[in-house]
Amino acid sequence: xxxxxxxxxxxxxxxxxxxxxxxxxxxxxxxxxxxxxxxxxxxxxxxxxxxxxxxxxxxxxxxxxxxxxxxxxxxxxxxxxxxxxxxxxxxxxxxxxxxxxxxxxxxxxxxxxxxxxxxxxxxxxxxxxxxxxxxxxxxxxxxxxxxxxxxxxxxxxxxxxxxxxxxxxxxxxxxxxxxxxxxxxxxxxxxxxxxxxxxxxxxxxxxxxxxxxxxxxxxxxxxxxxxxxxxxxxxxxxxxxxxxxxxxxxxxxxxxxxxxxxxxxxxxxxxxxxxxxxxxxxxxxxxxxxxxxxxxxxxxxxxxxxxxxxxxxxxxxxxxxxxxxxxxxxxxxxxxxxxxxxxxxxxxxxxxxxxxxxxxxxxxxxxxxxxxxxxxxxxxxxxxxxxxxxxxxxxxxxxxxxxxxxxxxxxxxxxxxxxxxxxxxxxxxxxxxxxxxxxxxxxxxxxxxxxxxxxxxxxxxxxxxxxxxxxxxxxxxxxxxxxxxxxxxxxxxxxxxxxxxxxxxxxxxxxxxxxxxxxxxxxxxx
Length: 526
Ligand code: AMP
Ligand code: MG
Known about the structure:
The chain is α+β, with helices and mostly antiparallel strands. It has 16 helices and 14 strands. Among the domains are: 192 residues, no CATH class; 85 residues, no CATH class. Strands 3, 8, 9, 10, 11 and 12 form a six-stranded antiparallel sheet that branches. Strands 1-4 form a two-stranded parallel ribbon. Magnesium ion binds next to loops. Nucleotidyltransferase involved in the post-translational modification of proteins. It can catalyze the addition of adenosine monophosphate (AMP) or uridine monophosphate (UMP) to a protein, resulting in modifications known as AMPylation and UMPylation. It comes from Pseudoduganella plicata.
C-alpha cells in the first residue's frame, strides 16, 4: 500500500532503567499564587483528574497576564460548555486568559514523561498547561485547560508562556480538525496580552483554552513504568478504563484490552491524518493522547505540493516525523505505551498481540478513506488493482508535486465518460501525459462500477475538504492579530468550520499558496 507501516523498532520488552530516582517528583513544590476567584463565568466545574492521588499533579494557580483581550472564540466549542459566545465580557476574558480563576476551579499541572524524537527524555509534565477542571456537556465531561498560563513545577527551562502566533495556530487547527471529522482536542478561545515573551524575537503572550475529555498521554503511563512504580501505573490505568473505556472493564484482561483499543484508535487517527495531508510535526509520546485524539498542535502543517518526505517541523532535522513516517511512528509510539503497560498486562505475548492490531487497523482505515477520496466502492475483486491505481496516483502526485488538497477536491469534477472536465486537474501537473494516463485508468475503474458522476461528486466533496489550514492562511491571520486586528482569525475560523462546503465568497482561501509561503518555517519554538 501507499504507506509502509512495518514496525521498525522491534525491541524486546526489557524493563528500562528508571530515568529518575524514585521520589524526585516530591521536589515539585506546591505553588499557590493569589488568583482572584470570580463568578463571572459560571462554569459548573468538577475536577475528576484531581481525585487521583497527589503524585499525579501539582496544585497551583495561573500567573495572571496583564490587561488580557479576546483574540478569538469558537462559538460551537463555547456552546458545548454552556457559554454564550456573544456574552464574553471582560471578566470572562480574564478567566480565559488565566488572569482570574473561576470559583470552582481547582487548577493542577499534571506530571508525565515521554520519548522525544525517539529518545527517552525523562520527566516532562505540563510545563505551561493547567487544568481548571471538567464540565458536563452533551458529549460527556470535558476538561478545560489553560495553555500558556505561567510556570509550573514542570516548566524546566521554559517560561510557562505561549506566544500569540502558536496560540492562534493551535486554536484554528484544533477547530479545523474537528470540523474535518478527525479526532482531536478542541479549542475554546485565545486570549492575548501585550506582555512580552522572548523567543527568537520578542513576541507577545497568549493563552489558549483547550478542551478534551482528558489530556492523559502515553507519557503519563511511561512516567510510572520508568520509575518502577507499578502502584501508580495501575491507579492511572484503572482511572482511564473506568472513566473513558468502561466497557473494557469486563474483558478478561482490561489492561490488554486498553492497549488494543488505544492502538486501534491511534492507527485510525493517523490514517485520517494521512488522508487529509495533516502532519503533526512532533509525534513524541508525550504528545499522544490516551484517547487517540490529535493533541498538542505545534509546528504542524497540511500537505500542499505533494512530497511524501515532507517535514513540516523545521527543528526535525532527521525527518523522523515526515508525512511518510507518521504511520510507522504511530506504531512506535504505541510500542512505547505497550512497554509501559507490560507490568499490568502481565504477559509479553498478550501485550504483543494487542500491539499487533496496529498495522491491520491502519491499512483497513486508510484503504477505506482513500477509496472514499476517489469516490470508489471497495470491491474485493478489485483490491489489488485498486492498490496499483492508488500507488500510481501517489507516484504522479509526488513526481509533479501537485497540491494535495486541490487535487482531491478537483477530482470530483472529473467525468467518468469523457475528459471534457479534466482541465482544472491537468493544470496541477507538469507532466500532463502522466496525468492523462492515470485519469484513463481511473475512468475505466469508475465505469466498471457504473459510477454516476453527480452522485460521486457529492460523495467526494463530503470527504475531500476544500478548505484546510494552510500555513500561509494561518500566517495572514497571525500578522493581522499582531497588529491587534482579530478579524482574520474570526473569518478563517468560520471558513474552516465548514471545510467541505462550497463557499463562493471565500474562494481565495482555497487557492494555491503564494510564492512567499515557501519561505515560512515553523519550528518547535512556540
Ligand atoms: P511540546 O513539544 O510543546 O509538546 O513541549 C514539550 C514539553 O515542554 C512539555 O512538557 C511542555 O509543557 C514543555 N514546554 C514547552 N514550551 C514551554 C514553555 N514555554 N514553558 C514551559 N514549558 C514548556
Ligand atoms: Mg507536548
